[in-house]
Design brief:
It is a single chain. This protein is of the alpha+beta class and 254 residues long. Helices cover 30% and strands 23% of the residues. The strands form four sheets. Strands 7-6-12-9-10 form a five-stranded mixed sheet, covered by helices on one side. The termini are far apart. The model is unreliable at 71-80 (pLDDT under 50).
């Protein structure tokens, strides 16, 4: 026999198990992010004339706002999707039940909510209001799957969220960059990122605000293809007429 004792067999088995291929543990890497040249945070959104507000009293035991089940069923006047919907007039006012007209222009959502909680303190029990601005939106254009207007769920959303809502980038048609265009008073500011920067959380978490434009420029090859297709659409009727003319001439000369 090769081994005279069980101890020898144990040593061999231990050596063989050590030679087996071990599954590598996942590698975790971390690095310090250096802030790129990004846009300045605009801060909280200030309500302006034309905005549409959805106002909710979070204390549903009070009588001012309807029960959310009744609201969803559409049985309560003035309610929509669990809240009271009101438009800001050209004078910056809204009309609220019991308290009448309220100046909201230039205020933030939180300031309006806090003001309502104070004004309704003698009307309902323990009022706690939430204000949502429902008309905020951005434009997404260029080489994305779904171009057009995208409604914001809140005052701002990240660039990554906006691109996801647009169905993602069409990389086969896109160039090498993405632009965020923002109007600042009478000026317009454009910040351009390279696609290689999109893996940086500081870029993808960049805030996108109301009226911003997210533009993914198409590549030169894509632009040439589009131009060729347009020219082809123009030429096709001419070629059809020429072919018909030649056919008629051939028939007449027979």
């Amino acid at each position: 026999m090769m081994f005279k004792s069980p101890g020898g067999v144990f040593v061999v088995m231990l050596l063989l198990s050590a030679c087996r291929t071990q599954q590598e543990a996942p590698r975790i890497t971390s690095s310090q992010l250096s802030p790129p040249s990004i846009m300045i945070d605009q801060g909280a959104y200030l309500i302006k004339p034309g905005d549409r507000l959805r106002i909710r009293n979070l204390n549903w035991l009070s009588e001012l706002m309807p029960d959310p089940n009744q609201v969803r069923a559409g049985t309560a006047a003035g309610g929509s999707e669990g809240g009271f919907v009101v438009a800001v007039s050209s004078e910056g006012l809204v009309s609220m039940p019991e308290i009448g007209r309220l100046k909201v222009e230039g205020l933030t959502r939180k300031q309006v909510a806090d003001t309502l909680s104070v004004l309704y303190s003698n009307v309902v029990r323990d009022p706690l209001f939430e204000v949502e601005i429902t008309n905020l939106r951005v434009k997404v254009l260029g080489a994305v799957n779904n171009q057009g207007l995208i409604l914001l769920d809140k005052e701002y959303q990240s660039l990554g969220d906006i691109l996801a809502k647009a169905g993602g980038i069409r990389y086969a048609e896109a160039g090498n960059s993405i632009q965020v265009i923002r109007s600042e008073g009478t000026q317009q500011r454009t910040v351009e990122y390279d696609f290689q920067q999109l893996g940086d959380p500081l870029i993808m978490n960049q805030y996108i605000y109301d009226n911003d434009i997210v533009y993914v420029p198409p590549s030169r090859e894509t632009l040439r293809t589009i131009k060729f297709q347009r020219n082809l659409i123009i030429i096709q009727p001419i070629l059809a007429v020429m072919n018909l003319t030649v056919l008629i001439i051939n028939l007449l000369t027979r």
